[in-house]
Amino acid sequence: MAFLGARARCSAAAAAKVAQRRRLAEDARGPPSPPGSQRAALYVHWPYCEKRCSYCNFNKYIPRGVDEAAVRRCLVTEAQTLLRLSGVRRVESVFFGGGTPSLASPHTVAAVLEAVAQATHLPADSEVTLEANPTSAPGSRLAAFRAAGVNRLSIGLQSLDDTELQLLGRTHSASDALQTLAEARRLFPGCVSVDLMLGLPAQQVGPWLGQLRELLRRCDDHVSLYQLSLERGTALFTQVQQGTLPAPDPELAAEMYQEGRAVLREAGFRQYEVSNFARNGALSTHNWTYWQCGQYLGVGPGAHGRFVPQGAGSHTREARIQTLEPDNWMKEVMLFGHGTRKRVPLGELELLEEVLAMGLRTDVGITHQGASVFVGGSGCAGLSVAGSAVSAPRHLAAENPLPCARRITACPVSQDTAR
Ligand SMILES: C[S@@+](CC[C@H](N)C(=O)[O-])C[C@H]1O[C@@H](n2cnc3c(N)ncnc32)[C@H](O)[C@@H]1O
Ligand code: SF4
């Protein structure tokens, strides 16, 4: 694509410098961990894709060309603005999602991380994930992302059957996906996740389990299983509606899910969330922050965030949604420093809904961490407070305190990936 030009190829050196600066900053010892209300996760949305997949209704665009330098400037500006508004002093994870962020140049990733590290404390061991599509992520690009500061990859593999991949409108084959997975594991050992879909039209339980078993011979320590959600407005939805494809069978999907869970359990994976499985402690700390109702900032077109704008003197947790369409979002960022389209202050009922809906997705259930949104209005910002005493609101407090979330070992970072 147009925006993957010479700039991307010459960005590795700049990215390495950023990584070096972050390492030096850490050597100089960061400040002690601030309270949960001053910690957050940061999501960065890259809204562009090479091609529209037949099932996807995420906020993504297929551009003719992208002025990447302008997008980069806007991502950096919006990150700076939202960090200032939030009063956050420590960012514990960054997640580059999309769209297809592996189409962005590593230089853009490095620039955002550098802006975050300048505005707040970004510990060297913070989890920095990038979603990668197999065809846009050959080994050399993955290495450049690593030099830019990424230390975890989430690969959209979706299926190991070429016919299914075609049905899904993917640009890669099963063998492309496995090759990317092998390269990713070499570069990010212990920190590679894969997405596998289930419940596709005409998909049968036995062959799908065969794919999962094949994947288990090749994968690392994190797997996400996503049941196809047939979304109105997608090509797949239309095909099913017009009868050119059979509707996915929910009973078969349920069977795949149940059998898949058992296979993953036998392989030593802990199901820590409805769709997410990890072994050797390789849970996604970023996503865990969402499920524990921690604070998170959302940067980029259509990104969502939930935090207390303490920097603006507020004590109320807000849901914030950024403008969806990239060109409009950029105009707003250039005018106002951010492209926030909607702010919703969250009352007790909404907070309770969040605590219940998020907590019930996890294997630890409703915890004090989640309930703390009632106390400071900000929730727990991540894993490092797990096990610490966070008081529950009086009307939720039990005589025997609820078990706190288990402490999760941070994703191991090998010597040469350490920033
Ligand atoms: C939005 S995608 C972004 C990652 C990347 N662009 C990719 O396609 O691999 C994140 C994941 O969401 C899942 N996903 C997207 N649309 C879905 C749908 N309609 N039903 C189920 N899972 C879906 C896919 O497994 C995908 O890997
Ligand atoms: S599934 Fe991923 S690559 Fe496909 S259109 Fe959606 S965001 Fe883009």
Automatic annotation (TrEMBL):
Signal sequence extent: none
Subcellular location(s) of the protein: Mitochondrion
Entry keyword set: 4Fe-4S, Chaperone, Heme, Iron, Iron-sulfur, Metal-binding, Mitochondrion, S-adenosyl-L-methionine, Transit peptide
Domain Radical SAM core: 34-270
A Pfam cross-reference name: Radical_SAM
Listed SMART domains: Elp3
Name used for this protein in its record: Radical S-adenosyl methionine domain-containing protein
Origin species: Vicugna pacos
